[in-house]
Write a structure and sequence with these properties.
Blueprint (H helix, E strand, L loop, with lengths): L8 E6 L2 E5 L8 E3 L13 H23 L8 E10 L5 E11 L8 H10 L5 H8 L11
Antiparallel strand pairs: 1-2, 2-3, 4-5
């Protein structure tokens, strides 16, 4: 599942609204924005896109762990809630993400394997693991 350098490009449309594209792929573009009063709510904001990335990664990792253990499960439904609050410097930050994954084994004889997978899967999640550990971000601002 390597993403080695696959770019994600953002282009400003209007104020806080951006079009996100995925060069080199056939994925459709996304629209992202901020909520009013600063934005127009034309798409999800950064907090929601982070929550979506965490939820997708955890859901997929749980599924992969269960599949490798040959445990058939009901379709996974996931809800992610982000708590935003001010830090000690008064800056808004995502302070907590609560992830609820809902599924169950389809065969009761798989219950023990299911429980084991639930215990270990998040150790393999690329995105949530990186967020937990803190991701270094190299950034630059350059003239066109």
């Amino acid at each position: 599942m390597g993403e080695d350098g696959n770019p994600v490009a953002l282009e400003q449309v209007d104020r806080y609204e951006y079009t996100i594209s995925f060069p080199g792929s056939s994925f459709p573009n996304w629209t992202v924005d901020e909520a009013p009063p600063v934005g127009r709510d034309a798409g999800p904001n950064p907090v929601r896109t982070l929550a979506a990335a965490i939820g997708h990664c955890m859901s997929s990792t749980l599924y992969n762990t269960l599949e490798r253990a040959h445990v058939a499960v009901a379709p996974i439904r996931t809800t992610v809630r982000a708590t935003v609050a001010r830090n000690d410097r008064g800056r808004l930050r995502v302070r907590n993400l609560t992830v609820e994954l809902h599924t169950r084994p389809l065969r009761e004889e798989d219950r023990a394997s299911f429980e084991h997978c639930v215990e270990i899967f998040d150790d393999y999640c690329t995105v949530s693991g990186a967020v937990r550990e803190g991701i270094p971000i190299d950034r630059s601002v350059r003239p066109d």
